[in-house]
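Justification of computing resources. Each target in the renewal requires a structure prediction run like the one illustrated here; the chain below, 184 residues long, is used simply to show the kind of job we budget for.
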Amino acid sequence: MEQLHALNRFMEGKQFQRLHSGLDLSERFRRIRHNYALFQQLVDAGFESWMGTNQYAIGDWVSIFTPIEAATWHDIRCGGLPLWPQLPVDRFFVDFGNPIAKIALECDGAQWHDEAKDARRDAILRDLGWKVWRAPGWRCNRVMERPDDFPEWSPEAQEEFWRQRRAETMLGIIEEIRPYLEME
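Resulting structure tokens:
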């Protein structure tokens, strides 16, 4: 009960700003930055954790996701991963990221993908200590498929499929983030 009172005292005069699809992009991203800065204050005060799954404290993500982001978000939530949508990193926003593990997942829809621009952006993020996982939009829609979902495939084909998925998708991210989860 004391912790609840402390949280209420801490939050006095502070509030998360509402996110919704009716906002223009600059206002939406301004509010996202504000909400993440407030969440960081909660983390610093010991009330929250970046390794938790309280991403809805920041905003109602489903109302603003693209179809690719919504499909990926479903898998992130089902996996219980502490990845945060539209996470600000320096001057960028990564599709999904964790600021403790410094892991980002970028889902590249064909409409927005620019290889040269993405490479420059990834280099800056790498210089900041981040590991960026990129997946084409079609794969982000199906990142959690397992090879045994395709029983008609040979065991070798299933194993190759699994290796590729593991290296390029959420499953690889799970392995990357696991040590940080165990430290919590």
